[in-house]
Amino acid sequence: MSRFTVATQSNSHSFHLADPCDTCRARDFSACAPLDAEEQSRLTAITRTVQATPHRAIFEEGDPADNVYTLTAGAVKIYKSLPDGRRQITGFLFPGDFLGLTHNESHAYSAEALTLTRLCRFPRRRLEALLDEIPRLEQQLLRMASHELAAAQAQIMLLGRKSARERLVSFLLMLSNGAVRRGQRGDPVSLPMNRSDIGDYLGLTIETVSRTLTKLKTTGLIELLDDKQIHLAKPEALREIAEGF
Amino acid sequence: MSRFTVATQSNSHSFHLADPCDTCRARDFSACAPLDAEEQSRLTAITRTVQATPHRAIFEEGDPADNVYTLTAGAVKIYKSLPDGRRQITGFLFPGDFLGLTHNESHAYSAEALTLTRLCRFPRRRLEALLDEIPRLEQQLLRMASHELAAAQAQIMLLGRKSARERLVSFLLMLSNGAVRRGQRGDPVSLPMNRSDIGDYLGLTIETVSRTLTKLKTTGLIELLDDKQIHLAKPEALREIAEGF
DNA sequence: CGGTCCTTTGACACAGGTCAAGTAATGTGG
DNA sequence: CCACATTACTTGACCTGTGTCAAAGGACCG
Question: pTM of the entire structure?
Fold first, then answer.
């Protein structure tokens, strides 16, 4: 995985756990203690690569939490539901992201692929056993978890106090920054999810998402190349809107 | 847009790091690998007990993240702010909870005591050094972080999809459950924070908080013993409301 | 006993939700 | 290649839950 190769999304982040240094770079982690060859091979020994197709659950809220995953290609949504059908998407995951880590017996959320997706699956018991033996693995997990926690708090701020416009703009910038971090282009932001998923992520309805995007377009802040491709016409102005100025 | 407050993180338990087994029990963690006497004394060697008084910041968003804390007595709010003063409390912390863990150079949120509060302070560098030497310490942290993450997702669901009534009821039950976990009585729920903090936590205004509590009272679901003391008159009904039935 | 802070309550406004219709893109079977 | 269905997105008209603004009551305090 040389830094000089063109970043093809599929490879640059596979084996998140097995290739932590790459992950660190990609995610701006402050420190990085890569696994050595022997540790990596022990980790690899318990992983299986699996595929997930859109609209099929990877696991559902309440399912026994027997496996843990890292995403190596594609995109995934994780969400919680209320009995009457209201949904809240708590996150969109991209290559390098982690899925299913918990200390409970069952998953607290459902996970579903947005596109054709490749995952590394780790049996939880065996991964936990490895954690005891490879401290650096645990360090990586802790780093990732505290990163997730910071992201969750940003999302809490977004949902608790931002307007629809601020939410949409924050969302576009998040996607853009995420793409850049993964070595892809950040400007025409590509949305692998539909309007309904965006609404369920931002705590809005489909209609509000659509209307708000239209208004951003007519204001000249963004350009809708097509439904799922957005050009950030005035990135500075967008940044200010997202930050709440 | 005057005052909003900040921050969420859920519940932790006293001397979390110094007394992990107690923590585990209190939090229903699935496994528990307590530190041995020697490990504990090494941890204790780097801790200082400090006090925090209400309305004085423990640290602020952007401050260098030099210390990590566990709360041993009192209550703390953590919050993020937008430039125009909007605030979102991302968590209320109680004895046993953890404060300030991050992999960034600076804190992503502010922390402020609600009541007279006692904290254990760990210099971050020395704690990180210990992590390398005491794997079980890191295991505890990971457990705590993944617990926080689950709580953050519940809060995301609350903010994204629940009504004001559902939010208030969920909040009361959270406080009640938290108190029980810490070995206190869960029924007259005591609110160490004011209405403004509740609003800033639930993504509502003071007025909506007040009105909604009044309505819950006139419906007979709760009883307001005083401003900060609430009796859960119909716990089953409340539970259903919180879950979104 | 006047001031300050917190909470409650009321009247009204508005952002975003709901309901409904229309348009466009894509697929499907004949 | 064309009807036709399906799905996703947009737009409009209207409604409602919550926010905003204002005022008043209570508790606490010097």
Answer: 0.89
Q: What is the pLDDT along chain A (245 residues), one digit of tens a residue?
A: 332 222 223 333 333 443 433 333 333 222 345 778 888 899 999 999 999 999 999 999 999 999 999 999 999 999 999 999 999 999 999 999 999 999 999 999 999 999 999 999 999 999 999 988 888 888 889 999 999 999 999 999 999 999 999 999 999 999 999 999 999 999 999 999 999 999 999 999 999 999 999 999 999 999 999 999 999 999 999 999 999 99
**Distance, CA of B77 to CA of A111 (rounded, Å):** 31
**Distance of alpha carbon A230 from alpha carbon A224, whole angstroms:** 5
Q: Using an 8 Å Cβ cutoff, are B160 and B229 in contact?
A: no
User: CB-based contact (8 Å) between A239 and chain B?
Assistant: no
Name which of B58, B40, B189, B38 is nearest B116 in CA terms: B58
Q: How many CB atoms lie within 10 A of CB A188?
A: 15
Could you tell me the two tokens for B162? Answer: 């629940």
**Residue numbers of A between 27 and 56 with CB closer than 8 Å to B:** 29-31
Residues of chain A neighbouring B108 (CB-CB closer than 8 A): 150, 153-154
CA distances from A38 to A100, B113, B128 (A): 25, 47, 24
Q: Does A108 touch chain B (CB under 8 A)?
A: yes
A190 CA → C23 C1’, Å: 23
